[in-house]
Amino acid sequence: MTFAPIIPWPLLVLALAAALVFTVLALTTGRPRKPGRPGRSQPPRNARPAVLRGVAVVLLILAMLRPGWPGGQANTATAEMDVFFVVDTSTSMAAEDYNGSNTRLTGVQRDVMAIARELAGAKFSLITFDNKAAVRMPLTRDATALQTAMTTLQPQNARYAKGSSVTGAGQLLKARLAAAKEQHPGRPAVIFYAGDGENTSAEQPPALDAANVAGGAVLGYGTPQGGRMKESPDTDAGYLKDRSSDTAQDAVSRIDEDQLRTIADQLRLPYAHRTGTEPPSDMLGKAQPGALAISDADTPGRIELYWLLALAAFLLVLHEPLRHLAALLNLHPAAAKERTP
Questions:
Q1: DSSP assigned state of 246
Q2: Per-residue confidence band for 28, with pLDDT thresholds at 50, 70 and 90
Q3: Which end of the chain offers a freer environment for a tag, N or C, measured as fewer CB atoms within 10 Å?
Q4: Other C-beta atoms within 10 Å of 284: how many?
Q5: Which residues pair with 239 in a beta bridge?
Q6: Tens of pLDDT along 171-219?
């Protein structure tokens, strides 16, 4: 049997000793004997209820020790961490070459929520970038807020696209990482960068800063063959045309894995290509398992027994409200008799 007390041992020992002392006093303290009657003091009239209450308190204290038997299964996850999702929302993420004809951003949405489920209890933040970077969601433990933010996320409308850098969120990410480190020193920060590596900015993308990054992964979406992109998220929108072609063909966006691997090297993180056919364990298994301590397998747990002690304590004191109710009912006939002339 193992124990996992919910409060320090010394306090439990003191509480248990006090409960035992009061229980013994309730047993040994008697009523004064009547004058003229030799012998010992009579047993107290309220000894039985007092003893039952004392035993119930002892059982509750023992329940706070959280006894249990080794056994059962428990899923392991590291919750004490800050997880930053850096998501590319440029127009190219609307390319329909993820797991068939789905958009790349659809794949990002699925993977982000799969990561959030595996890292339940962690704090999550969502940063997006296209022409400019923005914090869509600050650090929070609310996984529902993350799901809402990801569900409503859409690729940038081609009408407003002015060229985007694959490291456009670098400065914002660096500032958020520094703020998180200052607020919670020692708490690891994990980065999941999700994009297609297509750089449409005229300038060379600046390198990302790996400072304060404890783990994570760079996730790539798209195919070498590429996919067409709709001009806007509207279902009836037409496909974006290739302006460099005289034949007005549909524009095609292709993944740039060399660029994504460069980003992974800058952040000192592994790179994983996501096609929609791999399980989340493949993605998380590469995300610095030493830092994340993620495991798909169940680990040995323990069978909790504290609830049996708590149930026994409840049954012992259940008679108290019934006893008081009976006493109140007995008062009504006596009161009615006194009022009778």
A1: T
A2: confident
A3: C
A4: 23
A5: 230
A6: 999 999 999 999 888 889 999 999 999 999 888 999 999 999 999 999 9
The full DSSP string for 25-90 is: HHHH--BPPPTT--SSPBPPTTHHHHHHHHHHHHHHHHHTT-EEEEEEEE-----SSEEEEEEE-S
Distance from C-alpha of 188 to C-alpha of 184, rounded to nearest angstrom: 9
Which residue range is the domain that position 258 belongs to?
82-297
Same domain, 142 and 245: yes
**Same domain, yes or no, for 38 and 180?**
no
What's the mean pLDDT in 10-16?
Answer: 85
Q: Are residues 89 and 134 in the same domain?
A: yes
Q: Tell me the two tokens of residue 117.
A: 């489920």
CB atoms within 10 A of CB 299: 9
52 and 135 inside one domain: no
Please report which confidence band the pLDDT of residue 80 belongs to, taking 50, 70 and 90 as the band edges. Answer: confident
pLDDT reported for residue 298:
47
Q: Are residues 275 and 127 in the same domain?
A: yes
Residue 200's CATH number: 3.40.50.410
